[in-house]
Amino acid sequence: MAKDSRIGSTNEAAQTDEATSLETIIRRRARGLIDAIVEEELEAALGAAVSARVGPARQGYRHGARDRTLTTSLGPTTFAMPRARVRAADGTPTEWRSELVPRYQRRSERVDEAILGVYLSGTNSRRIKGALAPLLRGGPLSKDAVSRLVGRLAEDFETWRRRDLAEDQIQYLIMDGWYPKVRIGKRRVRVPVLVTLGVRGDGERVVLDVRLAGDESTAAWRDVIRSLVDRHVGTPRLAMIDGSAGLAAALREQWPSLAIQRCTAHKLRNLEAKAPVRLREELAEDYRRMIYAETRALVDQARVRFTKKWRLRCPAVVECLQEAGDDLFTFLRFPKAQWKALRTTNALERINGEFRRRTKTQASLPSQDAVLLLLFGLLRSGQVKMRKIDGWQEMERVKQAA
User: Fold this and answer.
1) Which H helix or E strand runs over 378?
2) Packing angle, helices 109-120 and 143-161, rounded to 10
3) pLDDT higher for 56 or 231?
């Protein structure tokens, strides 16, 4: 059979392109960078550079090196991991271990997060290799490796959800339920995820608790609140909620004097559902004029006008507004600079929105555990970023008024 010379030329061309590609050049230089970083870490541990004479600062000695392969965002990179013996606190010699590249680590944290994200969205390990081929570039990835990553994430999640909250000095709570689709058996169903966000004494937002529940009942929210109390959350000044009767009852059961703010955005949607379509734009305009008035006096005046006007035009709208009562205007009792942040649960909506964006290509998640692990993975990797509330400078006043 005649040999097809085009095959050889094609392979040679591919190898040439690979050898001269920008990524390949960067990966080669990455070895030197990793070598230098690990060497600096070892020098700090030994208290002496290579070939340095014995001195009082020296804590041990080198004894060779061995090759290690680490898969980073540039692909697999082989570098020389130095070996050394260092003196422990009791004076006994021990084998030195790098903290930057721990023992048995084969992939960087960024690569592991990418693998976990793809897996928890419902992809098996074979498809992960295909999806992340440009990243792994032939790096090892077995079923056991993925299982270990998921197991490690689950352990980290359990530690995170039991952490002590005393030092956070939580002043405000933002609580809401969210309903992602999950595959249970052969059916896709929506399950409630109860999310609790806190505002620290410095105004920083932080996720306090994430858990699955059967529904948004008083009993379910009571479990959330009991967990927060057991973790020393303290006595918050305010809770922002979506209007769940079960949540409000559970909050007042634990903290009878707690101020509760009903989400004004949720209430507007409820009001619009009570009005004819032709009146909804006008209704929304009147409602926003009331909620976003500049002073408490103007809010009270707009509230009277709104009630009088819509009682005549659509009594069901007024009944829906009165259902919330003064809880819709609790934000008026707090510093004006914070009104924007305290009127709604939109901070939680942004977290839920990021989660939906991350999973929008999935019809459903593979399991209930995957919901929590994926959300925790997004939080831990920094893909869900929280910022301080508007008017955080007034938090000291809030704490002093407590």
Assistant:
1) helix 368-380
2) 90
3) 231
